[in-house]
Amino acid sequence: MSPRPHIEFIQSQCLPWRPTPPAFPGAQCKILSRAKADGACSLLLRFPPGWQREAVEHSRADEEFYVLEGALTIDGRRFAADSYAFRPAGSTRRRIKSSEGCVILAFYDREPGWLPGSGDGAAERSFRAVPFLDAGGMPWDMTLNDPRLAHLGISRKNLRTDPRTGERTFLSLVLPQSAPQGGSGPQEIHPVVEEAYVIAGALCGPHGTMNPGAYFWRPPGIAHGPFGSRTGSLSLIRFVGGRHVNEWTETAAPFDFATRYDPILPTDMALLAKAWPTPPAPW
User: Fold this and answer.
1) What is the tens place of the pLDDT at every residue in 196-217?
2) Which residues 6+ apart lie within 8 Å of 34 measured at CB?
3) What spatial distance separates the first Cα and last Cα of the chain, rounded to whole Å?
4) Distance CA 149, CA 144 (A)
5) Hey, is 78 helix, strand or coil?
6) Which of 11, 8, 123 is CA-nearest to residue 61?
7) Which letter, b or e, does each residue of 232-266 get, where b requires 16 or more Cβ atoms within 10 Å of its Cβ?
8) Tens-digit pLDDT profile for residues 268-281
9) Could you tell me if 91 and 85 are in contact, meaning their C-beta atoms sit under 8 angstroms apart?
């Protein structure tokens, strides 16, 4: 996995829509983060109504996506809002279209692109593949997996756990009116990358309040938190580069809902972030 800059956090409303790479001609994207070495990236992709592409081709990268709005149809399978898929490198597509238009949150483990011709079917049969999930219809797992996060009342929907690496993607639901008791708490540390996108609600932490459209890419070993939410929040979270483990600091850090926006951003994003906090649209 190639390194990416620490981004914590950017409201995606601040980022410009750009033409997509050749993989999606006629669509638009917002680049949330990207590795210079191999082109691995996290994107918002926007397809206009009536967009389509017909060609027998297979992916050169692992592709993972979650539909935020509208619907996308791939080889006859319709991915409506709150649908999810993970398609390993080599997965074949023949026709992709969006009749009503859509916005998806997409992740690629190298520069996205497609090669002509169908694969040998191994990717589709792979134990790593998640061909389709109706995440909106899945039940919430309300099991408390770490007592030090009890104040958030977290529930989860597990979308994928990679059987080889332990990498994980899930939806995280935080209850409203949740905050660490006493106005402080220990901080978490993970030995792998944590990446997140806020879909709904708001989540407050040391760098300010993340509203819908907020995104972060946090490298391994960085202490973060504590967090709280007045309204509740729904986020898509990925742990990249290995298995998710919570480690904790011995000392407590303060928490305050009034914390001002104080991001960690690369220079180009820092200039764009000045447009926040009045976004014109949900994404």
Assistant:
1) 999 999 999 999 999 999 999 9
2) 4, 40, 41, 42
3) 27
4) 8
5) strand
6) 123
7) bbbbbbbbbbbebeeeeeeeebebeeeeeeebbbe
8) 999 998 766 555 55
9) no
- Domains of the chain (ranges; CATH) run 16-137 (2.60.120.10), 147-275 (2.60.120.10)
User: What are the tokens at 129?
Assistant: 């593949």
* SS3 state at 12: helix
Say if strands 155-161 and 193-201 run parallel, antiparallel, or are unpaired: unpaired
Structure tokens at 75: 């080889």
* Cα(152)–Cα(155) distance, integer angstroms: 9
Q: How many angstroms separate the most distant Cα atoms in the chain? A: 60
CA dist 187 and 209 (Å) reads: 17
| Residue in the structure block whose two tokens are 């898509």 | 236
Cβ within 8 Å of residue 153, ≥6 positions away: 174, 175, 178
Q: pTM for the whole thing?
A: 0.95
**Which residues are CB-neighbours of 147 under 8 A, at least 6 positions away?**
none
The number of CA neighbours under 13 Å toward the Cβ of 5 is: 18
